[in-house]
Amino acid sequence: MDLHLLLKELHKKNDTKIVLLVADGLGGLPMGPGGKTELETARTPNLDELARRGTSGMMTMIKPGITPGSGPGHLGLFGYDPVRYLIGRGALEATGVGFALGPLDVAVRCNFCTLDAQGRITDRRAGRISTEQSAPLAIRLRQIKIPGVEVFVEPVKEHRFVVVFRGEGLGDQVADTDPQATGVPPLDPVATAPASQRTAEVAKEFIRQARQLLADQPHANGLTMRGFAKRPDMPTYEEVYGLRAAAIAVYPMYKGLAQLVGMKVVGSPSSLKEEIDVLEQVWNEFDFFFIHFKYTDSRGEDGNFDAKVRMIEEFDSVVPRVAALKPTVLAVTGDHSTPARLASHSWHPVPVVIAADSCRPDGCQEFSESAACRGGLGHFEAVYLMPLLLAHAGRLEKFGA
After folding, report:
1. Which fold has domain 92-229?
2. Which CATH architecture has domain 3-84+234-392?
């Protein structure tokens, strides 16, 4: 039986509260043989306490050896098979900034980048320019006109913006233009299916006009495109799990993903501390709370081991405020690994801890990759995290006689 159909049969209502704290890109690697990961290096007394009173394990986000993007990683955490439910990054970004995607729309997540005189990328993120600098540039690109297609451009955050093409005959099967490297030019948008050829042509024209409009910029004088996507059709948290679910996040993409699975995005926090402020304010209104922390991932992508350690310690510092609300179930994990050693997402499993009165203690004394490998949850696929959280919250009926 399909897992969602089974959970629809078994879920039941009660007054329990579930909190899922996600440190993006949490998993790491030692910088050398015999060393420690970022999580093992960080001072995390509060996460360690959760490990002592809870149960730990390791999660594979998709399948062994498969490196997940942030979208598939979070879908797995939310209990949706990321191979079955394919959501492009563009749809996540557009939904996250409040753009209502229609049936004729294709959304594209874009990055400003820095190009040299020969058109080669020297910085894939335009020096991570601030939102205050990038938003006016995104708005400038609204001048672009393409016959037969409506073009919408929305600022997102820092070097990111989203473009939506609206028109007949547009598909979303177009390859990314980010070569994932510097010293080479951006790739051309190429259709990977005949029905998306028109989209590739539209995207190429958008890039051409954008280059002209950005030519005076010292850093953000180019762009790359990723995640061409239409809006997916997905069952909601209420339908599958019987939960009134809230999402608390800073970055639009994660708000978008949460909305696509039926969570309500609450508050407008700009920091982790403000995210917990929002949690406290809406505590009585929801059953399930997803809280997202981005900077463990971005510091890993920068290849900055020490900075990622500091971000993990910042993440650890808010755990007592969450625990003080006395959630029935408190789970902490990541959506994938982003080792500073690799400066990128990786396929390595991610540690997870579940703390609840119904937990079976497993002897783990700290929250780390090495400890979680020996934890009582064992090693499982991320799609099974939600059933575990529901079970620990007493929200699943017995199956069968």
Report:
1. Alpha-Beta Plaits (3.30.70)
2. 3-Layer(aba) Sandwich (3.40)
CB within 8 Å of 347: residues ≥ 6 apart: 64, 65, 66, 67, 68, 337
Query: Residue-wise pLDDT tens for the chain (401 aa)?
Result: 699 999 999 999 999 999 999 999 999 999 999 999 999 999 999 999 999 999 999 999 999 999 999 889 999 999 999 999 888 889 888 988 888 898 999 999 999 999 999 999 999 999 989 999 999 999 999 999 999 999 999 999 899 999 999 999 999 999 999 999 999 999 999 999 999 999 999 999 999 999 999 999 999 999 999 999 998 888 999 999 999 999 999 988 899 889 889 999 999 999 999 999 999 999 999 999 999 999 999 999 999 999 999 999 999 999 999 999 999 999 999 999 999 999 999 999 999 999 999 999 899 999 999 999 999 999 999 999 999 999 999 999 999 98
Residues 6 or more apart from 294 whose CB is under 8 A from it? 24, 250, 251, 254
Shortest CA distance to 82 belongs to which of 66, 98, 94?
A: 66
Cα–Cα nearest to 54, from 383, 366, 380: 366
Q: Where are the beta strands (DSSP E) in 52-148?
A: 55-60, 105-115, 121-123
Tokens for 41, please give them: 């290096």
